[in-house]
Structure formats: C-alpha cells, structure tokens
Design goal:
Number of helices: 10
Strand order of the largest sheet: 1-3-2-4-6-5
Helix content: 25-40%
Oligomer: single chain
Bound molecules: uracil
Largest sheet: 6 strands, mixed
Radius of gyration: 18 Å
Length: about 280
C-alpha cells in the first residue's frame, strides 16, 4: 500500500479508537502486562459490599478548576420526584440548552431510581440526541446485552452520561462540556445512591476519577468515586471499555476483559451471573 495512504488510514483508526475511549495500542499481546491487569481487585472495606483490599489509586491529576457545585434538591423528596426535578433543572439551564445542536434533545439518565448499579457513559451520540434517551444506538444495544448477560435488565439499573447532550461531530466532550454536565451527573448519583458505578469508556472514567490515566490501565481494577459520599464513603467504581469500542474491536480478548469487569461488579454486590446454557 502507498505509505501516505497507510499513514492516513492508521491516523483514522487511531482517532476512532481515541474517540471510543482507548488511549493505548497494544503492540504485543501481553496478558500479564502490569498495565493491563487481568486480576480483579475488590474495593476496600466498603460497608455495602464484601470486605476486600484497599482500592488502588490511579495516578490522578487534580482538576484545574474547582468542580461545579451540586444542584440543591430537597433530600426528603422520593427519588423519582427528585430525579424529575433535576431533569427539569437541566431542561431550563440556558448554558446547556445553548449547546444543543439543531434537531437534538437533552439526554438525561433513566432506569430504576433505586438501582444498585449505575452505568455512566460519555455523552449522547446521534441516536441518543434524536430520542432523548441514553445508550439506545448500536453501542446501547450491546450495553443492553451485557446487562442482560449479568442477569439484570435495563429497567433494573440506572444509565446516564457525564454530558447530557451530543457534542458537535460526536467528538470527545471538552472539559467545559464535562463541567456543564457535572452537577447533573453528580445529582443523579446523589439521588439514586448506587452501590457500584460502572464508568463506561475512557472519557467517562477519566472525568469521574479526575485522571489523565487511560482506560487500558484503569479498567479491571476497583477505584473509588469520591465526589459523592454515602455514609461517609465514596462509591466503588469499575471502569470498563466502551461498547462502541467493543463493536469495533470485537475480539475474544476485549470481550472477556469487559465480561471480567462486569463479573467483578456482580461479585461486589454479592451476586453471580446466571449460568449460560
Ligand atoms: N455513548 C455514550 O457514551 N453514551 C450514550 O448514551 C451513547 C453512546
């Protein structure tokens, strides 16, 4: 192949991988490479899950600006009402509305207000912005299958994003866009109080953990989401690959990594995946 064309194709592939949350290219498959731990470690003695070791701390970079303050929602409200109020607040936020591309909608979270597991993705894609619902496109359908394989249903978990609109050209959200979504994402976590958060993809994991470390190194290990405290403790957080990345790199290795991450999430809740027949 003409070297210029090969370079162009490679650049395109790398850009797509980056958009999907992958920020390292494995050159030699190395199952026991320290940067790609296959061993699942459980989070520290969290009183809402099995006792385990201290969660490894990622090399993190503090935010350059303070996190935007949370939105005050009456804590005595039933969870469904509190979520509805938060959604209404988002729908009237002029700065957020100004970001809506023509013909697109805001995408708030959905699911069980009492969910034990909250999946947090990056931001709306075209299908989500058209329907106003998170994870309904091809990647969302794969996420649904993954949730089903865990023995759960989409309605039984809570699914949201760091950013509640579609960034132009489907690009990775900017720090400003993440800041706009932050109080609403935090608000949903505060209201639902999940026992475990799954950060779906690199952008989400980096934003939630306030780190520049990439998903290849973050996934497969327990972290703690400290921005919301429940009974004085952060929430155990498992980063995993984005299903859009899996769709592109549908290898046995990648699928088993994601599946191991999800099994660790179930184990953290004292559950097991149903046996496959
Ligand atoms: N990707 C995301 O991160 N979130 C969605 O809602 C859809 C695709």
């Amino acid at each position: 192949m003409d070297p210029a064309r090969a370079r162009r194709l490679l650049a395109q592939h790398l850009r797509t991988d980056q958009l999907l949350g992958l920020d390292a290219v494995p050159i030699h498959p190395a199952p026991n490479h320290p940067e790609q731990p296959t061993l699942i470690q459980q989070p520290a003695g969290h009183d809402r899950g099995p006792k385990t070791q201290a969660p490894p701390r990622p090399a993190s970079t503090p935010r350059l600006t303070p996190a935007p303050p949370p939105i005050e929602i009456d804590p005595s409200l039933p969870k469904a009402e509190a979520l509805a109020q938060l959604r209404e607040h988002l729908a009237t936020n002029e700065a957020v509305l100004a970001k809506l591309l023509p013909g697109t909608q805001l995408v708030f979270g959905e699911g069980d207000p009492d969910a034990e597991i909250m999946f947090i993705g990056e931001g709306a894609g075209a299908d989500e912005a058209r329907t106003g619902r998170p994870f309904v496109g091809k990647a969302g359908q794969l996420l649904d299958q993954m949730i089903k394989a865990m023995g759960l249903s989409r309605e039984g978990v809570y699914i949201t994003n760091v950013v509640h609109f579609q960034p132009p050209g489907n690009r990775v959200p900017t720090p400003d866009e993440v800041d706009l979504g932050w109080p609403y994402m935090i608000g949903q976590v505060q209201i639902v109080k999940p026992k475990v958060i799954v950060a779906v993809g690199g952008t989400s994991a980096k934003a939630l953990l306030n780190t520049t470390t990439g998903i290849t190194r973050l996934r497969g290990q327990w972290h703690t989401f400290d921005a919301v405290q429940i009974d004085g403790q952060g929430i155990p957080l498992m980063p995993t690959f984005h299903p859009a990345f899996l769709l592109r790199s549908y290898t046995r290795e990648n699928r088993s990594k994601v599946w191991n991450d999800l099994l660790a999430v179930l184990a953290q809740l004292g559950k097991e995946a149903p046996k496959r027949g």
